[in-house]
Every structure is written in structure tokens, then in C-alpha cells.
Design goal:
heterodimer; A: about 110 residues; mainly beta; five-stranded mixed beta sheet; four-stranded antiparallel beta sheet; B: four-stranded antiparallel beta sheet
């Protein structure tokens, strides 16, 4: 699976949009971009994933650049409860051993009042 | 739906003791996984299973064993606990059906070996 690079930490004001970048310059054509988050000491929680088109769900939006070498997770109106470590993961689709989700250190997003 | 349930939530073991971390899911997921997370670090895959009776090693399997006799349960066994196994353990599951589906994680078991 392709390696990802994320900033170690970011701050965001409550109510503002949080934009979390992820660099995956070695991504292959069949690799998807996934985002998970981990609120303090809890199990990771799935947020969103995409291949090449931008995606949106009730939690967030995912913007993937045209060359697919980077992406941005957008939390449109961050709240204090969004304070968490956000993981960007790139992996090939499918199950079994292809599902070795490799978690790096992620980005600690702190939402300030 | 309870999702993925891990027990116990906390445990203190003495060096050399053994224990089993329990993981159960009620979503009829084929794929199940065990991860460990050391302080300030990401998650590392210990073992995974693609269905009942089938298990395989992940990145850090040494010192652990697993079994998968049913779809619902995926216990993780520590035979001779060592201080290096002090960590938070997460179990996860995922459905087989679609090509790309999300993983559901349990709330973790915090293990301390002294």
C-alpha cells in the first residue's frame, strides 16, 4: 500500500471548516483513499473514502486532486467533539490480506472554542 | 446491533501469565482483525481472519495466537505475557460483500503487564 504523509497536528476554531491534508504521491491506480479518526482512547471510526472523484457524506467531504497524489478531508463546521487524531490511509480494494489497514501517526486536530 | 464488543475493557497481568481477549461482532462480518496500539503510535495489525476456520498473521504476531471457530467470535490469546505487550488492543470487523467497505472497531482492551 502507498505511504501517506500528514502534518502531525492542526488547530481549528469551533464552527469553522477544518481542512486536513494528506500526501500520497506514490498512490497506484487501484488504490483508494480512506479516512478514519480516533477520538481519545476510543476505537477508530470510519469517516469517508474515495478513488478519484470527490466524495461527501454526513460527516465530511473528501477532495482528491486530479493526479490523485494528495487529498483533503474537510469537516465543514468543526465542533469540539471533532477533536481527534485523523488517519489518512491508502489501500487496494478488496478483502482478506488486502485489508491490512496500515495506520500511521495521523494528524491530531484540536478544535478550539 | 451492538457492533464490535471487546472484553475486558481493562486488565493487569503479571509477567508470564496468560489471558484471552474476547471480541464478538453481531453484524455477520466475514473479516475480523486484531490491532495493538502503543502510546502515541498508530495501530499495528496482529492477526486477521477472512472467515470461520481461517486466520493469518499480520505485522506483529509474535507472542499471540488466535482462533476463529465461529463467524461472530475472534479471541486473541496471550500465552506468556511480557511487559512489551502492554498496549491497547482493538478488534475490528468488516463485511466481505462490497469491494470497499468500512471497518468497525471495538472500544479496545487496555492491557498492562507488570
Amino acid at each position: 500500500d502507498a505511504k501517506t504523509t500528514q502534518p502531525p497536528s492542526m488547530d481549528c476554531a469551533e464552527g469553522r471548516a477544518a481542512n486536513l491534508p494528506c500526501n500520497h504521491s506514490t498512490i497506484s491506480g487501484n488504490e483508494y483513499v480512506y479516512w478514519y479518526r480516533q477520538i481519545h482512547s476510543q476505537g477508530p471510526q470510519y469517516i469517508i473514502h474515495g478513488l478519484k472523484n470527490n466524495e461527501t457524506n454526513e460527516m465530511a467531504s473528501l477532495i482528491i486532486t486530479e493526479d490523485r497524489k494528495s487529498s483533503t478531508l474537510i469537516l465543514p463546521h468543526a465542533t469540539l467533539r471533532d477533536t481527534a487524531v485523523y488517519y489518512c490511509i491508502v489501500r487496494v480494494g478488496g478483502g482478506g490480506s488486502n485489508y491490512k489497514l496500515t495506520f500511521g501517526k495521523g494528524t491530531l486536530l484540536t478544535v478550539n472554542p | 446491533n451492538a457492533g464490535v464488543t471487546q472484553t475486558p475493557k481493562f486488565r493487569i497481568l503479571k509477567i508470564g501469565q496468560s489471558m484471552t481477549l474476547q471480541c464478538a461482532q453481531d453484524m455477520n462480518h466475514n473479516y475480523m482483525y486484531w490491532y495493538r496500539q502503543d502510546p502515541g503510535m498508530g495501530l499495528k495489525l496482529i492477526y486477521y481472519s477472512v472467515g470461520a476456520g481461517i486466520t493469518d498473521k499480520g505485522e506483529v504476531p509474535n507472542g499471540y495466537n488466535v482462533s476463529r471457530s465461529t463467524t461472530e467470535d475472534f479471541p486473541l490469546r496471550l500465552e506468556l505475557a511480557a511487559p512489551s505487550q502492554t498496549s491497547v488492543y482493538f478488534c475490528a470487523s468488516r463485511t466481505q460483500g462490497a469491494l470497499n467497505t468500512e471497518a468497525f472497531f471495538g472500544q479496545g482492551t487496555r492491557l498492562t503487564v507488570v
